[in-house]
Amino acid sequence: MTIETGRRSGVGESVLRPDGTLKVTGEFAYASDLWLDGMLWGATLRSPHPSAWIRSVDIGPALAMPGVFAVLTHRDVPGEKSYGLEHRDQPVLAVDQVRYQGEPVALVAADHPETARRAAAAIVVEYEPREAVVDPMRAAFDADCPAVHPNGNLVRHQPVRVGDTEAAAAGAEVVVTGEYEVGMQDQAFLGPESGLAVPAEDGGVDLYIATQWLHVDRDQIAPCLGLPPGKVRLSLAGVGGAFGAREDLSMQIHASMLALRTGRPVKMVYGREESFLGHVHRHPARMRYEHGATRDGRLVYVKAEIVLDGGAYRSSTPAVVGNAASLGVGPYEVADIEIDAYGVYTNNPPCGAMRGFGAVQACYAYESQMDRLAEACGLSPVEIRTRNAVSQGSRIATGQLIDTPAPLAEMLAEIAAMPLPEPVAVPADLRLLPGGVSQTTHGEGVRRGVGYAVGLKNICFSEGFDDYSTARVRLESLAGEPHVLVHTAAAEVGQGLVTVQAQIARTELGIDRVTVAPADTTVGSAGSSSASRQSYVTGGAVKTACEAVRQRLDAMRAEHPGLPLDELLERFGPIEETREYRHRPTGPMDPVTGQGDTHTQLALCVHRAVVDVDVELGLVKVVELAAVQDVGKILNPLALEGQIHGGSAQGLGLALMEEIQVRDGRVLNPSFTDYLIPTILDMPPMRLSILENPDPHAPYGLRGAGEPPTLSSTPAVAAAVRAATGLALPRVPIRPEDIALTPASIS
Fold it and tell me: Coiled-coil region(s) at which residues (predicted)?
């Protein structure tokens, strides 16, 4: 679908999204709406066991069913049998064993989706269940633990060593320790995995897919199909949210295999339960922290152990570990640091990218510690953070210099000065109380709490990854008017990137009519729509390509002075330029010390949460969230506010309700009935202060903005609940049974 932007405005304006009205009215075409005459429907048979040997697979009953066109197992994979983002450890279809509940075992193509599902259920698989490794601590540290993979259970161990923490500990006047846990959060996008694979005359396949990273998808798909990359062509279909879960493959190879086998287009759409089993989740974490400080609250040393459960396959666990380690002390100055971050294999559901990417888990722990330290030192939560705040010229745990504005102390002062919401008078409108109109309370056991938190997030890919984007910009005359066509492979996943690309083109070329072409693999890679990177790198690529077009246009005008632009383009145009844009280089973390200039850019967000808690029933109502965020340069104010609101909502969800319940490796709540996400009634009003302190290294001075609010909102809400209840609450999400007090403690 080609999208022509509606309002003709440039960088810095609240340009409305061209897809916005279509999505609100239900007219937008998502990947699940794809249709071709004569297409078949694909379905997947998945393992019911988290760990088992496969002794036999009988596809005969499925093949015998009317309407079934193909049934495939691992024996039918035409090329390589495994794939992965960077390490190919995940089977296309299980070969001799399964490592998690939901692992794909066989595929079916049929003329009706229900027929395909019934045929998949008719396949007979003989499993021999075995002991499942479900405890990440055991996987990390128990030498007798069974190995999930032949090379063991350790995916990555990343230490960080700065100074001498033992010597520093001897001189610390105040020491606080804590153990913290973060549950498994789901990205919970509303549009389930879906796509349409169409066999091509050249023996290749055209795949229309909802994804985050077209070229890396292609580079994983092609070897498994036994095809050269040029014969696997991907086009971005309508994406109903992503948040990291679409960075890994789901049904891409499966649909393509079925299409090539049957010679017919094949559509696959996951139901909600299958979606929970069919994509990666946020890594659950177990963390132990120790902070030492002077009596007046100055940090002396930090020790941390972070264990991340990567589940059955590698995915992006190594990079998540790197983020957790490098950002593990947060935005605070501390001379002596000892961090050990681990990522491990288990037989739990696979985990990978999710908004915040390792920094979320660490932030919850270090911010909980800062509150404990404040209490031990007799300081306010704001003061303890201000006294230790980084600024331009500080160094983070990896030794990397913060060489761009980082006004954390000023941000903390600003959020502390914001007025607090008025308390709810009792008796009150029930809609204002925890539990709402369910008549659970009339305010008898309701207490108010206020909490603060800060998050430090890296922007763009880190640790030496070749992070770039490609843009092709064409200036031509259409219907007698100058027109700009922008073409990139950057995935629009709901963040408003289509709008921003057009804004940049208008700003750089001064042309009102701009069309953003559909994203596909006929143009060079734009990388993933993750890591808050697309405005930075794809925005930079579009800007650079526009500058090249403008340079040629200026030369053309100099040769033909006085000729109107449309006439100039009709006679001597069009002008087309393709450019790649790379940010400044990064390097890997030292494997022993963790030191290195590993990050492209760092971003700060500060949250304040105000909550009302019914301590008798364990119910929480978030009354207000306030946020101060430095974004460098605002490209689109309205879209930016939406990103901060959305990130804050996901952080609120992690704090209070969102968790995939996994017991013995099995998912217990794969539905939106039992997996709870914040609704419009759960999301409170927000006060926002958006600062602009330009980063001289970035296009327009911008700073990636989508992820930072997800970090600090979770610990801010948790801190507010602690303030209301006086409870330690070392785990998120906080459950009602964690809060509800006994009658004796309430009196």
Answer: none
